[in-house]
């Protein structure tokens, strides 16, 4: 159970204060007992239930106040409802290090093949979109059920310099926002917009982001900050770290695409694709480009949003990761307010307290 206005739970603190006042009031009445000659006579005269009769109405009244305070805090529960409208956005890293041939013929081609097989395996009603990111991010294909458009989009991917993981997440959020009015567009320095009210914890949208990268972020917004925006919108991000530890030489068919693919980047020379220092320069395609995956950040991105991190060091492992994604378990979550139940319980307790107080007032 979550609360939309948790600050109002502080009102429950008034109940112990009320109990304290009640106890003090009861103690002040004790001196009147000296008017009777014997306490034994009093005990014999009073029925065995006198203690309950005296204090139960107040206990019910205090419980009514506590229940009312909980109701004011707006308690909610999250209900999972099956949905036939699944939307998946694939955010694929196209930085220069994806040209590495340690996963033959190259990381980027292995990723495209695995993504194509994943798309083919999904149901016909599943909408899939594609986002590509290097130093910036772009929606290559808006979510669609047209498989041919998706295959064409995968074949059109070209590599660029640098790695902006956060930008890839924000672009994926925007792709989802285009088709789901309940998901607000992302915020950035260029388009600040209005921050949406964060969804209750556990309230997930029926869309997910699958982010694949072989490096660490060295451009754009911080990945965890972008992930928080996804979490605020209920969008889960499943992250994949791809590539071998030793890396490999560049695929000659892929490496030339680096030239001029990044805004403001000089043609030729060294580059920082993938985000790890000491990588191979573009001028020497035979120099191995070591994997520099920031697994800690990718795990944090997944954890913040309710997703999962998967490592993959080969094409077969990547295929297995894609096929193991929980796309068949995607549900639509509805937030149900249950404050009315606490209000009803409060009214019941207050009514019982009043009725018992009136019925038991003339104690013997």
Approximate shape: elongated
* Biggest β-sheet description: 6 strands, mixed
- For the largest beta sheet, what order do the strands appear in spatially? 5-4-3-6-7-8
Strands, count: 9
Into which percent range does the helicity of residues fall? 25-40%
Average pLDDT reading:
79
Alpha carbon gyration radius: 31 Å
User: Secondary-structure element sequence?
Assistant: EHHHEEHEEHHEHEHEHEH
Strand content bin = 15-25%
Given the helix and strand composition, which structural class is it? alpha/beta
- Residue windows where pLDDT falls under 50 for at least 5 positions: 259-285
CA-CA gap between termini:
45 Å
Number of separate helices: 10
Task: Note down, in words, how this protein is organized.
With 364 residues, the protein is an alpha/beta fold. Helix content is 37%, strand content 16%. The chain contains ten helices and nine strands. It has a six-stranded mixed sheet, sandwiched between helices. Strands 1-2-9 form a three-stranded antiparallel sheet. Helix 3 runs antiparallel to helix 10, helix 4 runs parallel beside helix 9 (315-324) and helix 7 runs parallel beside helix 8 (295-305). It is elongated. 39% of the residues are buried. The model is unreliable at 259-285 (pLDDT under 50).
Which short descriptors sum up this protein?
six-stranded mixed sheet; elongated; 364 residues; 10 helices; alpha/beta
What's the structural blueprint in terms of helices and strands?
Elements: E1 2-3, H1 14-28, H2 39-45, H3 50-72, E2 75-82, E3 87-93, H4 107-121, E4 127-133, E5 137-144, H5 147-155, H6 165-177, E6 207-213, H7 223-232, E7 236-242, H8 295-305, E8 309-312, H9 315-324, E9 331-337, H10 339-360
Parallel strand pairs: 3-4, 3-6, 6-7, 7-8
Antiparallel strand pairs: 1-2, 2-9, 4-5
């Amino acid at each position: 159970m979550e609360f939309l206005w948790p600050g109002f739970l502080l009102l429950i603190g008034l109940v112990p204060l009320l109990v304290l006042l009640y106890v003090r009031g009861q103690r002040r009445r004790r001196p009147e007992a000296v008017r009777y000659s014997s306490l034994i006579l009093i005990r014999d005269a009073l029925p065995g239930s006198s203690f309950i009769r005296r204090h139960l109405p107040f206990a019910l009244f205090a419980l009514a106040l506590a229940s009312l305070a909980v109701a004011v805090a707006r308690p909610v529960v999250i209900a999972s409802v099956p949905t036939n409208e699944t939307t998946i956005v694939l955010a694929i890293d196209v930085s220069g290090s994806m040209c590495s041939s340690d996963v033959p013929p190259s990381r980027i081609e292995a990723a495209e093949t695995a993504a194509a097989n994943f798309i083919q395996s999904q149901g016909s009603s599943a909408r899939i979109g594609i986002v590509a990111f290097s130093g910036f991010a772009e929606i290559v294909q808006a979510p669609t059920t047209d498989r041919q458009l998706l295959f064409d989009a995968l074949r059109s991917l070209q590599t660029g310099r640098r790695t902006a993981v956060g930008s890839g997440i924000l672009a994926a959020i925007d792709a989802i926002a285009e088709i789901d009015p309940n998901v607000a567009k992302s915020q950035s320095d260029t388009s600040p917009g209005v921050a949406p009210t964060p969804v209750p914890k556990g309230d997930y949208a029926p869309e997910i982001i699958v982010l694949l990268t072989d490096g660490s972020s060295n451009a754009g917004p911080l990945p965890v900050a972008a992930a928080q925006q996804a979490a605020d919108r209920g969008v889960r991000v499943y992250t994949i770290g791809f590539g071998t530890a030793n890396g490999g030489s560049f695929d000659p068919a892929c490496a030339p695409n680096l030239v001029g693919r990044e805004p403001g980047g000089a043609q030729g020379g060294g580059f920082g694709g993938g985000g790890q220092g000491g990588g191979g320069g573009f001028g020497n395609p035979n120099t191995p480009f070591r994997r520099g995956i920031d697994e800690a950040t990718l795990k944090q991105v997944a954890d913040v949003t309710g997703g999962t991190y998967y490592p993959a060091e080969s094409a077969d492992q990547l295929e297995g990761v894609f096929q193991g994604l929980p796309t068949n378990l995607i549900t639509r979550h509805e937030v149900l307010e249950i404050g009315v139940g606490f209000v009803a319980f409060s009214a019941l307790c207050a009514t019982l307290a009043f009725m018992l107080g009136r019925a038991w007032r003339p104690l013997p």
